[in-house]
Write a structure and sequence with these properties.
Largest sheet: 3 strands, antiparallel
Helix content: 25-40%
Number of strands: 5
Number of domains: 2
Shape: elongated
Structural class: alpha+beta
Radius of gyration: 34 Å
Number of helices: 4
Low-confidence stretches: none
Mean pLDDT: 76
Strand order of the largest sheet: 1-2-3
Distance between the termini: 89 Å
């Protein structure tokens, strides 16, 4: 049962019985939001058996509010990161099409001894001492 509500509602006080003990506590918020309730209204609650002062509304456990600040912030951040990644990919593709990729050196396409012999130099072989 709801025993007290302020005007925001920033504090919703509920009273319920657990194992014959009557407990009165504030209803916990979910993402900074609390359900609208009025004094004297019956409200189904879910509580932590180890700490009965941690209480949520049963409706919010079954179907939590969809649009809350943390959910909207996370969605906006994910959208921003995705847009930045797409922008970087598109810019890189434009850069490579406009300026081309850097030419590969002859050393990567041919063995070192063949590339030096073609230039008229003697081939040097590296050996371990």
């Amino acid at each position: 049962m709801v025993t007290g509500v302020d005007n925001k509602p920033e504090h919703v006080k509920v009273k319920f019985k657990v194992s014959g003990k009557s407990i009165q506590t504030d209803l916990q918020d979910f993402a900074g939001m609390r359900p609208e309730a009025s004094v004297g209204e019956n409200l189904m609650v879910v509580f932590d058996p180890r700490d009965p002062k941690r209480v949520l509304s049963q409706d919010w456990v079954d179907e939590p509010p969809f649009l809350s600040f943390p959910i909207l912030g996370t969605a906006l951040l994910a959208l921003l990161c995705t847009a930045m990644a797409v922008a970087v990919i598109l810019r890189r593709r434009w850069y490579l099409r406009t300026f081309g990729s850097p030419p590969l050196a002859d050393a990567k396409t041919q063995p070192a001894s063949e590339s030096k012999e073609r230039k008229g130099e003697a081939a040097t072989h590296l050996t371990k001492p």
